């Protein structure tokens, strides 16, 4: 049974039925072509099929979010590793230059050299000895 959309007060129908914005969007899509298709809504098999499609899409979106999250964590890890590698290389270069007093008698103050070494070691130790809780938790399965 198809009811022409002009015979229905859309705003009132949507307000009475919709519980949230998602429901409103779904109802507006059903009314969008100018006809409210009641047969699709009242048929239990089609309702069950729609629910299954929505649940499958929800799981697909959750999986896409997890994949994106893993990808972003990987990128962040690679950037952090690159930064720490460059920083460590610079510390060793400073240490080497300090040891050979080159160029032109290069010498860091003792406190600044110690601070540089301690800061680098602390960064690495904190990252590896005390990882964040999010990194150690297995993915949640919402079945």
In words, what does this structure look like?
- The chain has 143 residues and is mainly alpha-helical.
- The chain has a domain at 73-143.
- It is 73% helix and 4% strand.
- The chain is built from 6 helices and 2 strands; from the N terminus they run E-H-H-E-H-H-H-H.
- It has helices at 10-17, 21-31, 38-42, 44-100, 110-129, 133-136; strands at residues 2-4, 35-37.
The residue fraction in helices comes out at over 70%
Give me the strand/helix succession. Answer: EHHEHHHH
Oligomeric state of this protein: single chain
Distance between the termini: 36 Å
Main beta-sheet annotation: 2 strands, antiparallel
Low-confidence stretches: 37-41
The SS-based structural class is mainly alpha
Overall pLDDT metric: 75
Compute the CA-based radius of gyration.
Answer: 31 Å
- How many DSSP helices? 6
Question: Shape, please?
Answer: rod-shaped
How many DSSP E strands?
2
Structure summary:
The protein is mainly α.
Task: Summarize the topology.
Elements: E1 2-4, H1 10-17, H2 21-31, E2 35-37, H3 38-42, H4 44-100, H5 110-129, H6 133-136
Antiparallel strand pairs: 1-2
Helix pairs in contact: 1-2, 4-5
Features:
single chain, 143 residues, mainly alpha, two-stranded antiparallel sheet, 6 helices, 73% helix, 4% strand
């Amino acid at each position: 049974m198809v009811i022409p959309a002009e015979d229905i007060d859309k705003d009132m129908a949507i307000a009475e039925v919709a519980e949230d914005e998602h429901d409103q969007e779904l109802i507006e899509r059903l009314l969008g072509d100018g006809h409210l298709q009641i047969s699709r809504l009242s048929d239990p098999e089609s309702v069950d099929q729609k629910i299954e499609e929505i649940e499958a899409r929800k799981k697909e979106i959750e999986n896409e979010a997890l994949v994106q999250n893993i990808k972003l964590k990987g990128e962040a890890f690679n950037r952090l590793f690159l930064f720490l590698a460059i920083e460590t290389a610079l510390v060793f270069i400073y240490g080497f230059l300090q040891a050979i007093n080159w160029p032109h008698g290069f010498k860091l103050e003792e406190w600044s050299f110690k601070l540089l070494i301690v800061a680098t070691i602390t960064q690495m130790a904190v990252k590896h000895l005390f990882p964040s809780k999010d990194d150690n938790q297995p993915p949640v399965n919402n079945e």
